[in-house]
Specification:
alpha+beta; Rossmann fold; D-amino Acid Aminotransferase, Chain A, domain 1; Dna Ligase, domain 1; six-stranded antiparallel beta sheet
């Protein structure tokens, strides 16, 4: 790939240091993605400028106008502290006619809204757990179609925020208590869905029109007791000491039939297209003991840190970290955004 001017967009608190020296693993984990991407692109010979954002849109405009980057590498997960506002930054990049990496605004909006995305997937007859939304400040009753046990989470937040073992509820009293907890702790509506017991799989996908998937990855809950091994809580995903203690890891899924790999790959592409996603994404699935598969979430712009499941699954089929980042950049440069279409 030719050498590019790359504007790396990140939260202002996640601008990485020049070196890892003197930082603990837990500290590094906060900005590891930003450090890994910055370091690898720099080692590849690109000119990279980091811009940390919180609510300073004028700084973004100035960087684009004054530096004229070839592409903005988007690592933002929120703006002004609001997770759903990152889509507006991407829309702003389109208004500025600035090429960018990752998902387009419409795909971000549809996939970030867990309720809307599940409604769309259900319309496309893509299997997803039965669900209902419980809105803040409104009286509610449990729909008859939902059967215990149920899983309760925020309708918007990701990264396992608000998820713990108490998220699985067995009766009406537990359900009411957990819904109130989500309302109070996340200040969002609560999404309640049927709990799917089984193996948890992740499938990475890249592309705009033509899509390619990476090998199926699986969450191994290690030595956690059966009663605790059902969900990827915040501790399971982000607490290194907890992971080491229980042998929790992700890796290439073993023991699946070729037909299962094909089915998960096809489902991933159907979801990606149904939600109008572009760039790259990761789909989360559960497979019951009887082989039935349900999609749990569609994640646009998933974690790109080296060592995380997306990069590791790509590497397992010969796409090393640099090639992965370059593929993501090419997809951004080639994306047929509206202003390019109108310009002919």
């Amino acid at each position: 790939m030719r050498k590019l001017k790359i504007l790396l967009l990140t939260h202002e608190s996640l601008v990485p240091p020049d070196s890892l020296e003197g930082y603990t693993d837990q500290q590094i984990n906060e900005w590891k993605t930003e450090y890994d991407v910055l370091t690898e692109l720099g080692n590849a010979g690109h000119e990279v400028q980091v811009l940390g954002l919180y609510d300073n849109l004028a700084d973004l405009r100035h960087a684009i106008r004054s530096w004229q980057p070839d592409i903005a590498f988007n690592l933002l997960q929120e703006f002004q502290g609001i997770i759903t506002y990152d889509q507006h930054i991407v829309a702003y990049l389109e208004l500025m006619r600035q090429p960018y990496t990752g998902c387009n605004p419409r795909g971000m909006m549809l996939s970030r809204d867990k309720v809307l995305s599940k409604q769309i997937l259900a319309w496309h007859r893509i299997p997803t757990p039965q669900f209902s939304t419980f809105r803040m400040g409104r009286a509610y009753r449990l729909p008859r179609k939902l059967k215990f046990p149920l899983f309760v989470k925020s309708a918007i937040e990701d990264a396992s925020l608000g998820i713990s073992q108490a998220s699985i509820v067995e009766d009406h009293a537990q359900l009411r208590e957990r819904i109130e907890f989500i309302h109070e702790s996340t200040r969002t509506d609560a999404l309640v869905e049927e709990y799917i017991e089984g193996r948890e799989f992740y499938v990475g996908v890249c592309g705009n029109e033509r899509l390619s998937t990476f090998p199926v990855w699986e969450m191994d809950f290690g030595t956690l007791p059966q009663v605790m091994a059902g969900i990827a809580t915040r501790k399971v995903k982000w607490d290194f000491d907890y992971q080491k203690k229980h042998g929790i890891r992700t890796g290439r899924a073993e023991g699946l039939a070729p037909a299962d790999h094909d089915r998960l790959g096809r489902l991933t592409k159907r979801i990606y297209r149904a939600l109008h996603m572009t760039g790259y994404a990761r789909m989360d699935f559960r497979m019951r003991a009887d082989g039935s598969v349900y999609v749990l979430e569609a994640n646009c712009n998933p974690n790109l840190a080296w060592g995380e499941d997306f990069a590791e699954s790509a590497h397992s089929e010969g796409v090393d970290y640099r090639r992965l980042l370059h593929r993501i950049i090419r997809l951004g440069l080639n994306y047929r955004v509206e202003w390019r279409t109108n310009d002919g």
